[in-house]
Write a structure and sequence with these properties.
The protein contains three helices and seven strands. A hairpin with a 5-residue loop joins strand 4 (about 95-105) and strand 5. About 20% of the residues are buried. By secondary structure, the protein is an alpha+beta fold.
Length: about 240
């Protein structure tokens, strides 16, 4: 009777192990399949961004015309810079040099505004007076990339409008802090055209989304296969010992 109980317990143990291994295998394989689905989504996102970058520039007469445009589309917008309302965003590093991004409201003909990220200046040129030649007066035409606000990262500090500390571009918050009405919900990252005096230095890079989903899928599938191999070897060892 004791032997029967022992065999029954052993059988239940094997069933429990089989169920646990099956559930773990399904989970690992499911994660691998999910990563393959994410891979296709990311490839589509990269293709969409590349298409936006390669498309010809669009001239924006009014901010509303940007509503249907994808981010990183080349745009052209005309207006007059409000240099007295310039905002320094950062600090940031560029080629190992500490500095700031210069963001300036561009007053449009219809009374609205578009923020322009004019580019990078090193620490010693943060003060506008130190680069007076680059404070272009009168009507200008800005060529650049259409950018939209993105969610704040987990470890990124919050903007501090009251303290005039800005760590990321937020058109709505910046327009409110500057007392400007009708600020467009996007901004333009100026291209590489040189400013008088050389500063700010434009030319925003187009950042393509990271795509490591294939590696992740291979990892999950490999773990699923390794689990099966270990389980089969364990079963073989148990049979040899019985």
């Amino acid at each position: 009777m004791a032997e029967t109980a022992r065999r029954g317990a052993s059988r239940l143990s094997r069933i429990g192990l089989a169920v646990s291994v099956s559930l773990a295998f399904v989970l690992l394989a499911g994660l691998g399949t999910w990563q393959l689905e994410r891979l296709q989504w990311k490839l589509g996102l990269i293709a969409e961004r590349q298409a936006a970058v390669d498309a010809p520039p669009v001239t924006l007469e009014r901010p509303a015309e940007a509503a249907g445009l994808p981010e990183f589309r080349h745009v052209r917008v005309g207006g007059t810079f409000r240099h007295e309302a310039e905002i320094a965003v950062g600090p940031i590093g560029h080629d190992g040099v500490p500095g700031w991004r210069v963001v300036t409201p561009l007053a449009l003909g219809d009374g609205g505004y578009v923020l322009v990220d004019r580019g990078f200046v090193p620490d010693e040129l943060k003060r506008p007076a130190s680069r007076a030649a680059g404070q272009v007066a009168g009507p200008v035409v800005v060529d650049g990339l259409l950018r939209r606000p993105s969610p704040k990262g987990y470890f990124a500090p919050d903007n501090d409008p009251a303290g005039h500390n800005w760590f990321r571009i937020d058109p709505a918050a910046m327009g409110k802090a500057l007392g400007l009405d009708r600020v467009a919900p996007f901004w333009v990252a100026a291209g590489k055209a040189a400013n008088p005096g050389g500063w700010p230095r434009g030319g925003a890079d187009v950042v393509m989304p990271r795509n490591e989903h294939l590696q992740y899928a291979i990892t999950w599938y490999s773990l699923a296969i390794a689990l099966l191999v270990i389980y089969v070897l364990l079963l073989r060892k148990q049979r040899q010992g019985s």
